Amino acid sequence: MSGKKTVLVVDDEQNIRRILQAAFDKNGWHALTAEDGHQALEILENESVDCLLTDVTMPGMSGYDLQRRVAETHPELPVVIMTAFGTIPQAVDAIRRGAYEYITKPFDLESLKRVITAALDGRGVGAVAKPKRASKDVGRAFIAESATMKAVLETVRQVADSRATVLITGESGTGKEVVSRLLHTLSPRADKAFVAVSCAALPETLLESELFGHEKGAFTGADASKPGRFELADHGTLFLDEIGDIPMATQVKLLRVLQEREIERLGATKATQIDVRLVTATNQELQHLVDEGTFRLDLLYRLQVVEIQLPPLRHRKEDIVPLSLHFLAKYGQENGRSLASISQEAERQLWDYSWPGNVRELENTMERATVMASPDESVLQPKHLPSKMLHAA
Predict the structure, then answer these.
(1) CB 168 within 8 A of CB 310
(2) Strands 213-214 and 226-227
(3) Domains of the chain by range and CATH?
(4) Under DSSP, is residue 126 helix (H, G, I), strand (E, B) or coil?
(5) For a 10 Å CB count at each end of the chain, is N or C smaller?
(6) Torsion of CA 354, 359, 362, 363, to 10 degrees
(7) Does residue 106 have a cis bond before it (omega within 30 degrees)?
(8) What is the number of alpha carbons within 13 Å of residue 331 lying toward its C-beta?
(9) If we measure between CA atoms, which residue out of 318, 312, 313, 342 comes closest to residue 145?
(10) Which residue has better confidence, 183 or 128?
(11) How do residues 43-61 score in pLDDT, each as one tens digit?
């Protein structure tokens, strides 16, 4: 048994335990079994275990209760949960509490072994050696004076270390990509690639090729093999913006990537394993798209392990002036201007405006003001602002 990884299988069905034990032993792992949560805890007290695989519905102690106990007593042990489709929301909650992954029953044995392999390899939330990365003090550069944005920053700090998928929601222009980049910068993947893709910017015919890559000759015009964005982001972070716009066929393939952690290039005959932290964003209500039949519910569950909601700028007005000063400094340096402060009247105009374009509109407004100001002006005045703001109620 020396050198073998040990997997503890917890299931009240003897047949399932027998099948999984045989499959795992054949795969080169040492498989232990328990018929309930209490027996599993006893084994953990006496054996060295590298991964725990548990069913949910068991007598005496559910798999979720077991996961909570294990999180307290063995916080470094990756826990994989086997669940029925109807209980996926609870499984997602378990991941939020530290579980490594969930799989749905009935499961494909090969897919399950890939998940266990990834957990054993440390591609998860367990205490594995983390690459050197940026200090969490970089969050100070994230401008957040309002209580809501301070809460967003705290959530980012809490989840950055995990591999959990993150869904960022909010109106256009609220800073979803900024948050996704901060997640990457504060993560163990900070020294690897951050790859951003706007799903709405790519036609359906090109989206799959861009995401998953293609082999030479896979389609007309494919004169050479090309890696997709998932491969380019391997060991790093992939940010998919406007995720609600991807077509159903691509949703199916994306779900498979999340479940099995492997991609298959268009025209390829074999799959390639990848290790990517996925962050997605949308300005749409994905649950409405699910109700309309244009977005898969099982994919939503996968994407929504952690959801970060960004409020519109009109709901966090405390951030307007600090953001304005930040953008004035940025564009002042680029354009040889020095608008270093804001007059009270201009500040009132900024505060009263509704900012339908959110932070993106504010940034454009400050760039325009910088260009409109003369080199000897140092204070932002109402005259530097667009007329629509001066006449806004």
Answers:
(1) yes
(2) antiparallel
(3) 6-120 (3.40.50.2300), 139-309 (3.40.50.300), 314-390 (1.10.8.60)
(4) coil
(5) C
(6) -170
(7) yes
(8) 19
(9) 318
(10) 183
(11) 999 999 999 999 988 988 9
